[in-house]
């Protein structure tokens, strides 16, 4: 049995989740402590992929990263690198669709705790960096972790946008969801069934674990 | 010595006060929403007033448009109304939070003394959600004094306590005030408390000294 869709999917999802985690935490923190004109517009743009059909996201990415696109052209001219129809394109699609989940979870987590905890730390002489690493991040961690799990699950399940910008190239861009679709289309239901069971089990485990962990965490910090 | 002149817009009124406090316990007394906490926050550097001047001993820590010393460098101890103890840290970590790592040994004696005088020494390894309201209040006091501040601010420090703990807390504040000899500025909306604690008390209503 060809396992490459599983490995490829894991590789893409792990990389996408790492990117989304770092940028999501950074942006959520930045926007949660600052108010400025146009903040609502930025937040709306960030959340947009959540309500758009994946084909619209895919079309947008093709438009920007295609050979003649704004960024695609730059990549080609400067680095002689074409993103479209590579596994990097699948990473890009996964990042764009899973980013809103990470951002939303992290932003809610940063806003949830009492601001006076940070204020208290400042009055004791702590630098902004120290307050972030010792107060804000640990207290927001349960929400951030939920965001990481949800983003990973969303990245793993990405189909529409991936198909549009990475295509279906066996051994190169055939992620699990794509492999399921093309197996069914080719009449190979048995192969599709195995991947479906795998995706189902993973999805269930992720959500189950998340619920359990959330329940446990609400009891208190000292009972880890 | 603490001097504060503040002139700032709030949602319902304009806050306009001038305070000058020597090494005494001054109680800011007045109804809820009259701007008392805003005054403490401005002195601590958490909120920036529209206009004003704040001086702690000989240091000007705020002067409109010219000086804004961040809260980290003001040397102000602050006991928040809900105590703001860090829920994910033990009592000991809470108390030592503001002490620079390299200087911990020089602060040990001072903090040990504070902890035993406020009878919280046995709680070092406990977490904030494992201790009582009165204990939380005393630990918040230890934490605020651990870094040897030049001014101590207390925002309704007894409002969440039962009668016995409240009385004990008030006695301790009076004792600490004598020991420390720095300006204590305490906010309350309880008249009896104001009379019991204050060397001098200032009545604030709708942002103005009445």
Give a summary of the structure in a few sentences.
Chain B: GO terms for molecular function: ATP binding; ATP hydrolysis activity. The complex is a heterodimer of chains A (224) and B (210). By secondary structure, chain A is mostly helical.
Chain-wise SSE layout:
The complex is a heterodimer of chains A (224) and B (210).
Chain A: H1 4-33, H2 39-51, H3 54-65, H4 70-79, H5 87-112, H6 115-123, H7 128-157, H8 160-166, H9 176-185, H10 189-217
Chain B: E1 2-9, E2 14-21, E3 25-29, H1 36-44, E4 51-56, E5 59-63, E6 67-68, E7 76-79, H2 91-96, H3 104-117, H4 133-146, E8 151-155, H5 163-180, E9 184-188, H6 191-197, E10 200-205, E11 208-209
Parallel strand pairs in B: 3-9, 3-10, 7-8, 8-9
Antiparallel strand pairs in B: 1-2, 1-4, 4-5, 5-6, 10-11
Unreliable parts of chain A: none
Low-pLDDT windows of residues of chain B: none
Shape of chain B: globular
CATH superfamily of chain A: MetI-like
Structural account:
The complex is a heterodimer of chains A (224) and B (210). Chain A is mainly α and 224 residues long. Chain A has helices at 4-33, 39-51, 54-65, 70-79, 87-112, 115-123, 128-157, 160-166, 176-185, 189-217. Chain A is globular. In chain A, 37% of the residues are buried. Chain B is built from six helices and eleven strands. In chain B, a hairpin with a 3-residue loop joins strand 5 and strand 6. The longest helix of chain B has 18 residues, at 163-180. The model of chain B has no long low-confidence stretch (mean pLDDT 92). Classes of the chains: A mainly alpha (224), B alpha/beta (210).
